[in-house]
Amino acid sequence: AGGGPGPGPGPPVPAAPGRAQVFTTVVDTFLEKLAAAGSYQRFANCYRCFYKLQPEMTRSIYDQFISQLQSSIKEEIQEVKDEGNLEVLFNSLDKIVEEAKNREEPAWRPSGIPEEDVRSAMVPYLLKHRSYLRKVLKEKEEENRKVAESVLAGRDRIAELQQLIQARKHAWQ
Q: pLDDT, tens digit, for every residue of 102-128?
């Protein structure tokens, strides 16, 4: 084992951020772009008369407006995340994707033909079930064979006993 370049363990690759983190980043970026789109200059242009009379007050109102807008959007998004249990779902999706990376065969995809899709999903299940039913049938047939043998043995024993009874009855007479 050498310390030079080539295959083998290298420095750990940082894990990609999870979907929950990506979602949070997207929301933060959206809020930044929203604030940029609603710039102070645009706000001041909309309220030009008020801006000319009270520029400091206009700036203060704008800052409060943007701050409250961002916080109310964050609260709404947090409410949606909580109600939809998004944090858990994102983590679950991350786990599924991670597990799928180790799979040999490709993931199932619909063909676009419902009959084929149903068949491809149902045939393996039905074949497995048929195999199970055949196994149970063989077990029952074997059980029935043993019971039939037992019944025949019982009948033979009854016939023997009847002959024995008849022989003893004749011996008495």
A: 887 777 788 889 999 899 889 999 999
